[in-house]
Amino acid sequence: MKRPKTSVAVATIVLGLVLAACGSGGSGDSDASSELRIAATGVDSLPFMAVLEVAEEKGWFKEEGLDVTFTSGSGGGNTLRTLSTGDADIAIAGGPAVVQAAEQSNGGIKVIAPWFQVNDFHWIAPASSNIDIKNASLGVTGAGSTTQLLGEYMKETTLPGIEVVELGGGMGDSWAAARGGSIDAGWAMHPFVTDKEKNEDAENILSARDEVGDFPADMVATSADFASNNGKALKAFFRVAERVNNYVIGSTDDAAKELSPILNIDDVDMLSDALRDTPDMKKAYSLNVDKKALETLSDLLVSNDVVSNDVNWHKMLDQSYLPKDARADF
Questions:
Q1: How far apart (Å, rounded) are the C-alpha atoms in residues 224 and 226?
Q2: What angle do CA 117, 215, 90 make, to 5 degrees?
Q3: Is residue 1 part of a domain?
Q4: Tens digits of per-residue pLDDT, 72-125?
Q5: Of 212, 233, 264, which one is at a domain's C-terminal end?
Q6: Which of the four, 59, 80, 112, 306, has the lowest number of CB atoms within 10 Å?
Q7: 137: in domain
C-alpha cells in the first residue's frame, strides 16, 4: 500500500520546526507567556473543538491567566503546519499527521494529549437507497485523512467488499455525492448526522465504531521548545479543557445554546440531541487517556503504512501536562 500523501506535508512541517528550534535557543523560563495561540481542525464546525471557544467566551481561560486566540485548520498536516510557521503554540489535529510528524521531528514536536477519544465516524445515505453495506462505495475526504485510513482498514479487515472513494472536501461534499448517486454513502460526524437524519431523510448505514472500535479523533501537539518554556500555560489549558468538557456533559442544553452561534446552527434542540447522540458522551468529552483507543489508532496507522512499527505511546505521549487523574499507566 502506498504511503499517504500526508507524508509530504509532514516533511515540510518537520523541517520548519527543526529550523525554528535551531534559531530559538529557548529562554529557560518555565512560564514565559500567558498568550496561547490554538490551531484546531474545525474549531467553528465540530462541537468537540468549538467547546474551547465556549470556554473562552465564559472567561475560563482568563481565570487561568491565559489570553487565547483560535485558528480553524482544515485538518491533518494543514492544521499541524501552524506550529512550524510559528502561527500557533498548540495544534489539535488528526492523529495520522501528528504521529508521523512527531516520529520524524527528532524531538521537535511533542504529543501531549489525545482529543475526543471515541470513534464518531459514520457513513450516511438517502434512506430509500437500500444499500448493501458489505459492497457499498464509501466517500472519504482524501489520501491520508482519518476517513481514508478508516475506509482502507475496514476494507482490509471487516468489510473487504467495500470501495473507498476519495472525494476531498468535508461532510457536506460527501453527503451531496451520496444524494447525487456518485457514491453510496458519505462520511459524517455529529451534529451533521443528527441534522441530516432529522431534516433530509438520511440513514446511518455504517458506524465505524462497530467495525473498528474507538480511537482519538485528534491529538494535541506543541513544539518541544514551547513546552519547555510554557509548562504552566499548557497545564492551565488542560484544566480549562477539562472544565468545559464537564460542562458539556452536565449542562448539555446550555452548552448547545452557546455552541449554536459558533457552529452556525440555529436549531438548538437538534444540536442538544446531536451532543447526546455522540457515542459514549462521557468518554468522548473527557481527557482521560484511553490506552485501548491509542492501540487502535496505532493499528490503523501501521495498516495504512503511515508508520512502520507499532507506536510506543509510553515514549511518544508526554502526559505531564494533563491533570494527574487523567493520565494512563503505560
A1: 6
A2: 60
A3: no
A4: 876 667 788 888 888 999 999 888 889 988 998 888 999 999 999 999 999 999
A5: 212
A6: 59
A7: yes
